[in-house]
Amino acid sequence: MSEPVAATVSSTRNQREKTVPVVTVESFYDSHAEKLQMKLEGPRVGFHRKIREPTINRPGLALSGFYTYFAEKRVQVLGAAEHSYLKSLSKRTRIQRIRDLCACKIPCLVMSRGFHLAPELLAVTEAAKIAVFRTPMITMKFINAATIALEVDFSPTVTEFGSMVDILGIGVLIRGASGIGKSETALGLIERGYSLVADDVTRITSLEGRELMATAPDLTRNHMEVRGIGIINVASVFGIGSIRIEKRLDLVVTLEEWENVEEIERVGIERESYEILGLKVPHVTIPVRPGRDIARLIEVAAMDQKLKGLGQNSAVDFNTKLLNLMEPRSTNGPA
What we know:
The chain folds into 2 domains: 25-153, HprK N-terminal domain-like (Udp-n-acetylmuramoylalanyl-d-glutamate--2,6- Diaminopimelate Ligase, Chain: A, domain 1); 157-321, Rossmann fold, CATH 3.40.50. It is of the alpha/beta class. The protein starts with 5 loop residues before the first strand and ends in a 9-residue tail after the last helix. Helix content is 31%, strand content 26%. The longest helix has 16 residues, at 294-309. The strands form 4 sheets. Strands 1-17-18-16-9-8-10 form a 7-stranded mixed sheet. It has a 5-stranded mixed sheet with strand order 2-6-5-4-3. Strands 7-11-12-15 form a 4-stranded antiparallel sheet, with no helix packed on it. Residues 1-5 have low confidence and may be disordered.
């Protein structure tokens, strides 16, 4: 038998175009206010402004009048140092420095350590329509947490037409042509005790270019369409343990009509991968025809993938044993 061969399947079919989300001050605040302990300071203005870079900036040099290489596209945080510096200035100078800062069209201001922006400075930000928030978090802790949150918000996303199921900790995306039985297969896996992540439409996000995280669109989350029955609420029918909000993508399974599969894999030596957002995910093709228990086959594929993750490859082990058996016996051995 030949050595293992890796092939890559492109993810252009049944997939929408890659998108990078637009992050506004409003979406940032609505999504992370609780985690970052942020509260609005002053009127609700400037929520339409876009955050164009997924990190945080401390405008200490800018407040002193130095704007070369100023990172105006980022969320601006005023910590203890900036707060103390502003207090050391005269009222007139302090107002002018904040006015100059707001003229750079920054997304928003965040006061860390629970500091309040002085009323005269708050009036300047209101006139410039820039939102001001307050958080009791220490400055560096806020910067670290907010940067992580923004990295997720800015992560590229694609939409795959397929169902996503968590099988023994292995996230499996089930693809295939319309009507081939993706939802019915997922339903069979749920009946076996596994968890549904998404049905029919799956949103996949690349986290820092190292792993893919899958989830369902908000509208269809926890629901399935079963042909002949209609829309069902999976959590209500099968219990809360039958659903999962998100799961890392570990395996892609493509269902194909039996007659459309040119060559059916019999041993599993040849490894395929499915490329999504520049990352390659292990991929298997399962031929479909009446009488085959597709849910059971996908369950076995997931368990086999879990073993491979632990360093055990059944196909390679079998290949090695077969090659050893085919080696000619030593002529010096016993008769």
